Amino acid sequence: MTRDAWVPLDPSMDAAGSVRKRRVDDTTYAQVLSGDDLHAAVANGELLWVLHRDTCNAFRPTNPMPAHVRDALPARRRTFRS
Predict the structure, then answer these.
(1) How many CB atoms lie under 10 A from the CB of residue 29?
(2) 18, 48 contact by CB (below 8 A)
(3) How high is the mean pLDDT of the chain?
(4) 55: Cα separation from own chain's centroid
(5) How far apart (Å, rounded) are the C-alpha atoms in residues 57 and 65?
(6) How far is the C-alpha of 41 from the C-alpha of 35, rounded, in Å?
(7) Per residue in 11-27, pLDDT tens?
(8) pTM of the predicted model as reported, rounded to 2 decimal places
(9) CA–CA separation, 23 vs 9, rounded Å?
(10) DSSP code of 65?
(11) What pLDDT score does 3 carry?
(12) Torsion of CA 7, 33, 24, 55, to 10 degrees
């Protein structure tokens, strides 16, 4: 809560979240928890917000090839162009 920045959150709370929202006057602040603070919040049963970057599928591969399949494929031939 020491730096002013936008923190994109998912629209609903979740037990696996890591962000606590605080409302002060007309402003809402997000406190990203970690370490002992996160463990204490989970132990108290708080429902926390989830960072959108943890659930966003926009830049993830849709179907990554498992390592055991990739290792079983024959090596690709390299073609050199001049």
Answers:
(1) 12
(2) yes
(3) 81
(4) 5
(5) 16
(6) 10
(7) 888 777 888 888 888 88
(8) 0.58
(9) 15
(10) P
(11) 62
(12) 30
What does the block give as tokens for 69? Answer: 């399949």
Please report, to the nearest 10 degrees, the dihedral formed by the alpha carbons of residues 38, 26, 4, 44 taken in order. 0
Residue 34 structure tokens: 């970690």
User: What single-letter amino acid sits at 70?
Assistant: R
Spatial contact of 48 and 13, defined as CB atoms under 8 Å apart: yes
3-state secondary structure of 82: coil
Structure tokens belonging to residue 9: 């959150």
Cα 21 to chain centroid, rounded: 17
3-state secondary structure 7-64: CCEEEEEECCCCEEEEEECCEEEEEECCHHHHHHHHHCCCCEEEEHHHHCCCCCCCCC
d(CA 73, CA 21): 48
Around Cβ 49, how many Cβ atoms within 10 Å? 20
